Amino acid sequence: MKKYLYLSIAISVIYIVYVISTNLIIDPQATHFLSNKKNLNYHMNVSVWLIVLYIHVISACLGMISGAINFSTKILQKNRKLHRINGYLYLLSVSVACLTSGYMAPFATGGRINSIGFNMMNIIWLVVTITAYVQIKRKRINQHRNWMVRSYVYCYTNMFIQVITFALYNGFGIHYDISYTIAVYVTILLNFIIAEVIIRKVFRVPTQIKSIKKEITSNLTN
Ligand code: HEM
Fold first, then answer.
1. What's the predicted TM-score (pTM) here?
2. What is the chain's mean pLDDT, rounded?
3. What spacing in Å lies between the alpha carbon of 101 and ligand 1's midpoint?
């Protein structure tokens, strides 16, 4: 269990360094990414889009790291307050990442088909995250953890899209727009499959937290 936590923190940190350095330092005008946007359905205000992209990248990265930290059972047992505050930080990050994604979706590379894909992900990510929150409000620890897994995999969306697009475009020479579209829809499927595999394989055993159990029992009896 611990090794998976360290692995997800390591992947998150490496990816965050990569995303921040490429998007905010190396290519802050997103020249490379924007060069692939052709035949857009709407007029795009590039300076507004760029600001929204920066907010999107920062909030998504915050979600990636705060989400990973909250899977630590040690923190949950020893510092419940930290888990709670970090949980609200995750909720806020996901909300901002979804809002900004909603703004950028109509201008998605590849056109309307990808706008639909991103909007689908937006809705699913929000619904799944709110469900995780509702579960813990009802004191259902394991359901909360499982829905958090389903929510957290969405933090890897951009990574999956980039890797798949790169492989199809550079490896197989498939047209960029088509590679990107395949990547968006394969990622929707991957997010679903990976979450269910993690829930069934990594979190087979219910989380046992004595202090929480005591609290729940006393809440229920009061
Ligand atoms: C930690 C997670 C995420 C990070 C780090 C991230 C980062 C980025 C970055 C760097 C871009 C610019 C394009 C690129 O270089 O790929 C981008 C674009 C975008 N992202 Fe995210 N993102 C994340 C999660 C998500 C999720 C979950 C959604 C959907 C619910 C989403 C929706 C979008 C949209 C709609 C665009 C614009 C795509 C386009 O113009 O073609 N992102 N994101």
1. 0.90
2. 92
3. 7
